[in-house]
Amino acid sequence: MEPLCGRERVGRQLKHLPVDRIAVSEEFWSYTIRHWEEQGKLPPGTDAVEHFKLDLDKCWAFNLRIDPEMADRLVAEDEETQTFVDGNGATLRRYRSHASTPEHINFSVVDRNDWEEKAKPFLTPTANRIDFEGYRAVRRACADAGRFFLWSGVNVFESMHPICGHENLLMGMALDPEWVSEMAEVYSDLIIHLWETLFAAEGKPDGIWFYEDMGFKGRPFMSPEMYRELIMPAHRKTIDFAHSLGLPVVMHSCGFVEPLLPYMVEAGIDCLQAMEVKAGMDLLRIYRDFGEKIALMGGLDVRPVANNDLPGIRRELETRIPVVKGRNGFILHSDHSIPESAEYESYRYFLETGLELGRY
Amino acid sequence: MTDFEALRAAVIKGKRNDVAAIVQAAIDGGEDINLILDRGMIPAMREIGDKFSRNEAYVPELLIAARAMQAGLALLEPLIAASGRKSMGKVAIGTVKGDLHDIGKNLVAIMLKGAGYDVIDLGVNCDITKYEEGVKQGATIIGCSSLLTTTMPYMKEVVAYFKDKGVKVVIGGAPVTQAYADEIGADGYSEDANGAVKLIDSLLKTA
Lengths: 360, 207
What we know:
The structure holds 2 protein chains of 2 kinds.
Chain A: H1 6-13, H2 30-38, H3 48-51, E1 56-60, E2 73-77, E3 81-85, E4 91-95, E5 103-106, H4 112-119, H5 132-145, E6 148-154, H6 156-175, H7 177-202, E7 207-211, E8 215-216, E9 219-220, H8 224-244, E10 249-253, H9 261-267, E11 271-274, H10 283-290, E12 295-298, H11 303-306, H12 310-318, H13 321-324, E13 330-331, H14 344-357
Parallel strand pairs in A: 1-6, 6-7, 7-10, 10-11, 11-12, 12-13
Antiparallel strand pairs in A: 2-3, 3-4, 4-5, 8-9
Chain B: H1 4-12, H2 16-28, H3 33-53, H4 59-83, E1 90-96, H5 103-114, E2 118-126, H6 128-136, E3 141-146, H7 154-162, E4 168-173, H8 178-184, E5 188-189, H9 193-204
Parallel strand pairs in B: 1-2, 1-3, 3-4, 4-5
């Protein structure tokens, strides 16, 4: 087969059509890129997508916070950390020196009454929620480079927990499911209305990428029944809308979400991304059980890369890629992202070995 | 006469008001608080924990059961102090230095409290000094949690520091495995929150 460009390759892989080689994508911690720049491995300001010739790129174009105009407001700091109140009214603490999931200090929305008063009236599809310019720039760069371009952003679960916190949201799913259903519906409608505005103004992307972390180590946050009842209708609505525009949908989830996967497939996802090995996700098992229905991106244990264990990287790739490339629907990606402990050469080895094994 | 079965069921179903009502009625009726705890509330939390381990219950059910348990404990706490009831053990738990993630640590704390342990929640970003504060407050077991591969190595320092100090260190978190626990010489590892309770039961031989 003649070499394909990234746009053709990813587009075909999401439909399980034959390709020249598996496509490649990756996410890097910001401190990883900085570390490599400081070492002189990357020129300052390098775009990793361009440098590593990745096949797709994405643009996070929406701000779904309750107050999209509010910048994070610093409320406390010490030598190591800074505490902010964000546009959702949530108080979060982050490290100054490195990337990490923030500590959840406080949330202004804890139940239905707070939602009705402090959130719902403000979640309207106004143009100030959309980064038109950013979207236009990445879309144009992808078109120029022949890369697959995805609109990226959160779906409903990742929209709801930032306003009320995981604990309040999960308790709400058990104690007041109608409230959670309503929040999910409001956010799914918001996303669709904003898409209509953006795509009318700037044109469509090649696909949609949803971030939707619904699991942790060994289990999903919710039961499959709760997913089906409270979250899946919103997923189906947004995915159906994307499909009506001819856009395939990639869904990212951290954690162990295999029990939800039958319903995520029923909701219409075209590709599952991340598949964290350390959380219990097993690429080969998922490929066996779902590989005919959806494409898969990731599922390759990042720990050998993080530990700069080159034989371990090769072992990880050799035991999986020859199998999972079988239905043309596998895209090379670590099982989450490349952390700052990974040396440039280790990622390069992961990439080159993966591509070598992923040729057809 | 307290209906312990009704109390147990109310905790499991997360019926906070029902738990408070049953416990208040039991207190008013002069019920032995040890029986309220040992025949009603603690077995309920252990049962929901076991359901969690079998994937018959998920985090939402765990959280509302803990909330219901807390409603009963709030009524019992003044009486527990006065009764001289012996603690099952004191555990100091915290997310390790460099890591601000607390959901997993909070779940373990909830399950330990539900199982009857005294829990000192040290919060996040805990260095050895912070863990030592927990020991000074009487903890005989330290629980270390981490989310990130980059913060996990600090557990090795904690384990090394407390070795031979009469304190056991147990570990858990997304990147942590039994193999890693063995490698650094930790006293135990658990895959999930309910497993952490059973692990500490076994270390303190309270089960």
